[in-house]
Design goal:
The structure is a single chain. 44% of the residues lie in helices and 17% in strands. With 362 residues, it is an alpha/beta fold. It folds into 2 domains: 90 residues, Winged helix-like DNA-binding domain superfamily/Winged helix DNA-binding domain (Arc Repressor Mutant, subunit A), CATH 1.10.10.10; 239 residues, Rossmann fold (3-Layer(aba) Sandwich), CATH 3.40.50. The strands form 3 sheets. The protein has a 7-stranded mixed sheet, sandwiched between helices. Helix 2 crosses helix 6, helix 10 packs across helix 11 and helix 11 runs parallel beside helix 12. 33% of the residues are buried. The structure holds S-adenosylmethionine (SAM). This is O-methyltransferase domain-containing protein.
């Protein structure tokens, strides 16, 4: 093999194609390291401390059989989460003052993983995506091309929603993550978007256990809310003042309202299914200014390479779970909406990566 002159003998030179290739196959490691720190409650331990903590101090708060060894393991877990910006590392003096040792702290990213921070924790989302349920599905990604079945279905022999009905532990991890996603998005939506202020009856289609509509009805108490989802999901939904829970199938029909909210539902579905759902929405809206508000991550002409990489990753997760589910650009959503008769499609970009699409039935 001829040596490339840029491979100048430094093994760990990231310009070295061999190292880059091997490193790209290691991509799952930070995700599992992050999961380990969450399961150990490291973000919570660090949040309770005013100062960065050494690994030795952290393990004192854990029921470790061998604390000295555990501190060593923990350093190695924490160290690969420094460059991605998940935890911070600084040097502090050792107890004898003779040298320095590493101390770890939270960054704005890991602050979002603190369990008891009910307003802002994103821990359930990180727990869902680092769950073996997803990684087992991804082992079958290549076969999905050959068999035209979702990797998840190939792994478990069931579709995602069949699996939910049978495996309550998977369903609860998923619902916790959806509830968490809703808290994050709805917090932005109720503060920055005033498009629900004239709504009388709002139907949240595929609304899960009602987290999103709960926020909207609390912000606009004049709204009558209808939370619509599969009967198996609705049976676990808690009572919410001002909201009726209705079970059903959005491919058949959905309850009537003057505004329909569809958050993170269309990306679970292929174009044909989206057209069926949007037609059900169209039917459920009144003739004059009935409105659909879609909440999805979308790409547009201003998207950066990082935005595209994030959306492409989410897109592959949709493929892995639902096969036909996919992420779309604003233009692609516009095509779906206009072919169902919707007009005046508008992209509304809010802060923290939250995007909405509005469209009207005239
Ligand atoms: C990704 S979740 C989004 C939940 C919620 N909108 C949110 O943003 O957190 C998709 C929702 O669609 C519901 N769903 C799937 N198929 C459905 C169907 N045929 N009819 C009604 N709801 C359905 C699921 O149960 C799930 O709650």
């Amino acid at each position: 093999m001829e040596l490339d002159p840029k491979n100048d003998g430094k093994l760990l030179n990231m310009e070295n194609d061999e190292i880059r290739m091997i490193f790209s196959a290691f991509n799952y490691v930070p995700s599992f390291a992050l999961r380990a720190t969450m399961l150990l409650g490291i973000p919570d331990i660090l949040a309770m401390s005013k100062e960065p903590m050494t690994a030795e101090n952290i393990v004192q708060r854990l029921p470790c059989k061998n604390p000295a060894a555990a501190a060593g393991y923990l350093k190695r877990i924490m160290d690969i989460l420094i460059v991605p910006g998940i935890y911070s590392r600084s040097l502090v003096s050792t107890a004898d003052g003779k040298s320095h040792e590493a101390a770890y702290g939270l960054t704005p990213v890991s602050r979002l993983l603190v369990k008891d921070d009910v307003q802002f924790t994103l821990r359930p989302i990180a727990l869902l995506h680092s769950n073996q349920f997803f990684s087992v599905g991804f082992q079958h990604l290549h076969e999905s091309l050959l068999e035209d079945r979702s990797p998840m279905e190939m792994a478990f022999g069931k579709t995602f929603y069949e699996l939910h009905a049978e495996r309550p532990e998977i369903s609860s991890v998923f619902q916790d993550a959806m509830t968490c996603y809703s808290k994050y998005w709805m917090n932005v939506i109720v503060h920055e978007y005033d498009g629900f202020k004239n709504t009388k009856t709002l139907v949240d289609v595929g609304g899960g256990e009602g987290e999103s509509i709960n926020h909207l009805v609390a912000a606009y108490p004049h709204i009558h809310g209808i939370n619509f989802d599969l009967p198996d999901v609705i049976k676990n939904a808690p009572p919410i003042p001002g909201v009726d829970h209705v079970g059903g199938n959005f491919f058949q029909s959905i309850p009537s309202g003057d505004t329909i909210f569809l958050k993170m539902v269309l990306h679970n579905n292929g174009d044909e299914e989206c057209l069926m759902i949007l037609k059900s929405c169209y039917e459920a809206l009144p003739e004059r200014r009935g409105k659909v508000v879609i909440g999805e991550h979308v790409l547009d002409d201003d998207s950066t390479d990082d935005d595209v990489q994030f959306l492409n990753t989410l897109d592959l997760i949709m493929l892995s779970v639902f096969l036909k589910g996919r992420e779309r650009s604003f233009e692609a959503y516009k095509v779906l909406l206009t072919s169902c008769g919707f007009l005046d499609c508008k992209l509304v970009k809010l802060s923290r990566g939250v995007t909405l699409i509005e469209a009207y039935k005239h």
